Amino acid sequence: MSELVIDENTRIQILDSIELLARARKHQYAAFIRSERALCVWADDVDMIVAAAETLEESLVHFVWRGEAENAKHNQDLLLDVEKRKGSPPQWDGVREPEKPELVGPTISALEDITLAYHNETGDEDPSVHRMKDYWRERPVMLIAPLSDALSLILVMTLIGLGLRTLVKEYALDGKTTRFSLIIFTPPLFCIASYACMCVIGSIFQILGPIRQVTQKSRYFSGIAPKRTMGDLPHVTVQLPVYKESLEEVIMPTIESLKKAITTYERQGGSVGVLVCDDGLQLLSQAEADRRRRFYFNNSIAFVARPGHGVDGFVRKGRFKKAGNMNFAAALSLRVEEIMDDIRPVNSVDHPWNDIDENKIYEHALEMALAEKEGKAWAEGNIRFGEIILIIDSDTRVPEDCFADAVTEMKESPEVAIIQHMSGVMQVANHFFENGVAHFTRGIQHAISYCCASGEVAPFVGHNAFLRWSALQECMSTDPDDGVSKIWSEDHVSEDFQIAVTLQMRGYTVRWATYSGGEFEEGVSLTCDDELNRWQKYAFGCSELLFHPIRHWLYKGPITPLFKQFVWSNIAVHSKFTICGYIFSYYAIACAWFLSVANYFIAGFDRKFYVDLPSWEVNLVCIILFVGLCNVAFIVLRYRLKIPDCSKLAFDQIKWVPFFSIFFTGMSMPMSAALFSHLVGYNMTWSTTIKTVEKSNFFLQLPIIWRRFWPQLVFFAACAAMMIITSSSLMPSGFRVHNIEVYVPMGILTASHLLYPFALNPWFLSFSARTLFLMSTYIAEPYAS
């Protein structure tokens, strides 16, 4: 298939006859028909056709008036500028390459051969070595994060050392050795304090440290987009796992956003396929399932659907089904590839192989693969994976021009397996809770960007990320339970962390990219209940990564093999410390309520223990650090980075302090419930994330709040009553608790747990305000008359 290159963002396919439109790239929305001598333009919406045609006409007029010589030079610069970009050719593994457009002029590989011959003749340095030196000079390993982590480690060790020094001094005074039993708490104290120390040093670096790295490129970070490689662009597959989300309100807007990006990439010379891993299709009613399938067919979307759990003996393994959903689609795709390799004939001169033949054997291979599943699997469309995969969520918006930058960066950096893009926030409800979580999400994204730019290993969060298909296939392992080779771990809640560790152990790199400007947008939790579920899942996943359930400790040991692999892997040591600090931050939040209650009884009723249990000092440090220093550091960092509207963002940073004080303090008990559930082997379950706005009212929310939060409401209501009683004359004078060092930490914790389900519930507060308005109107009505 040939095409006309108008500019770097516009290529129009050329077909010999109008019958070939059936095989055209649909998302280019235009094609020249040679036999008709006409440009055919189409669109999904009739109202858009005229505007699309006018845009193409304007581009063509500019192309014609630019002249043949100028166009030839322009295309030469676009396609053959190898010397300037000095990019090594990628070694692609994976599926067969899609059909490539015919371009006039020498190919990139031919030009590189000429360049190599020139250097060999002139005796200059080997061009591959020269390119590698330039690459590492362009993407150095930043040492700011290692320095920050080293100082954090020194700080936490200093604090532990000061505590041990206190024990030794007290022993020298009274000679009692029993206090040395507190040394057994040194390892957990080290783990819990490490995150706080990282925050202290990190905040100082944000205020006083270098910031230029945020606008540069480094090994784990891309602050600016790569210079695009125009020419033969690889096929990209967009993988979209869905469940029972609303087709109209959730899935359709995501597909519409994708179609704009696909059109851009196809007009740049690439091709994109969309594969929906629909885990809810076989669970829906027949009418709803047919609507989904019709929508997929009308938009040239492939899908794979597996049966429900327990249907005809089928087992949906894993606590969360996303990993199993994607594994099922990948296994079916690879099986189709195997069948195609078996039945594809050897290409001969007399019978050249073409796309029509390839499509025929694909359809036959898909039918055979589905027959092997005995009707359990549903699939339609092209379910084969391209060289690059973009994983998104069902409620995602993608930039209109994102594919070309990603494939260029993958081509320039063959060691990169994942490019994780910084995400913006897509809001649908716009109430105060969603606004607060959106503010927090944006802040977290900027904080990760700063850390990765400084030299931290980039995280993989499971969506809005480009992945190398060949690298994922290298990570396949056989599940001992069913003997099936799988990419994603179905035994872990945090399958994203598991695949990232596995890839890095195999020598690949995960990279964080910010050049999309946050145009990758994701939805956030719409209720405090949903957000609490999310944090409990994270806590459960962290416990799952670290520890076996207690019942397995006798014959497996407490530490999981995955964490052992992580500790002994070739991942940078400073990044291991950072990741461990992040994991243990969940334990720090979880133990807050238990330690505060214990401190209230121990230090409140016997002050001599207060020396060894300085809860007030810890509470004061947490307030100064997380409420004060961290917020100030982030405000200063935004100002230093010249982010627009710094004053408004600074006000927002301060405005949301009470919100997040209640939020993080009030989730201590639910967080500990998630950690404890994993350790004791309790089957803790969570409802699916709400993607659409479901308005509620006061009377509907009360029973929901009680069903979900009754344990903490009852417990902390009892704690509030206990605090009132123990500080009043009802208690004997020797058992009254008046010291502020004990009372304030317990009071803050109790108030936050009681307020969490009410103060952070947007519908509960909204209805309360409306009720007050109606009551005031009712009271004022007699006076008005």
Q: Which blocks of ≥5 consecutive residues have pLDDT under 50? A: 81-112
What CATH first level of one domain would be assigned? Alpha Beta
Shape: globular
Query: Spatial order of the strands in the main sheet?
Result: 5-6-18-13-15-11-7-8-9-10
| CATH homolog superfamily of one domain | Spore Coat Polysaccharide Biosynthesis Protein SpsA, Chain A
Oligomer description: single chain
Pfam families: DUF7928, Glyco_trans_2_3
InterPro entries: DUF7928, Glyco_trans_2-like, Nucleotide-diphossugar_trans
Keywords: Membrane, Transmembrane, Transmembrane helix
Keyword list:
four-stranded mixed sheet, globular, ten-stranded mixed sheet, 785 residues, 19 strands, alpha/beta, Spore Coat Polysaccharide Biosynthesis Protein SpsA, Chain A
Please describe the topology of this protein:
Elements: E1 2-7, E2 10-15, E3 30-33, E4 38-41, H1 49-66, H2 68-79, H3 82-85, H4 108-122, H5 127-138, H6 144-174, H7 186-208, E5 217-218, E6 221-222, E7 235-242, H8 247-267, E8 271-278, H9 286-298, E9 302-305, H10 322-343, H11 355-372, E10 378-380, E11 388-391, E12 396-397, H12 403-412, E13 416-421, E14 423-426, H13 432-454, E15 465-468, H14 469-474, E16 477-478, E17 485-486, H15 495-505, E18 509-513, E19 520-523, H16 528-546, H17 553-556, H18 561-567, H19 573-590, H20 592-605, H21 615-640, H22 646-655, H23 657-665, H24 668-680, H25 698-726, H26 740-759, H27 762-784
Helix pairs in contact: 6-7, 6-19, 7-19, 7-21, 10-11, 16-19, 16-24, 19-24, 20-26, 21-22, 21-26, 23-26, 25-26
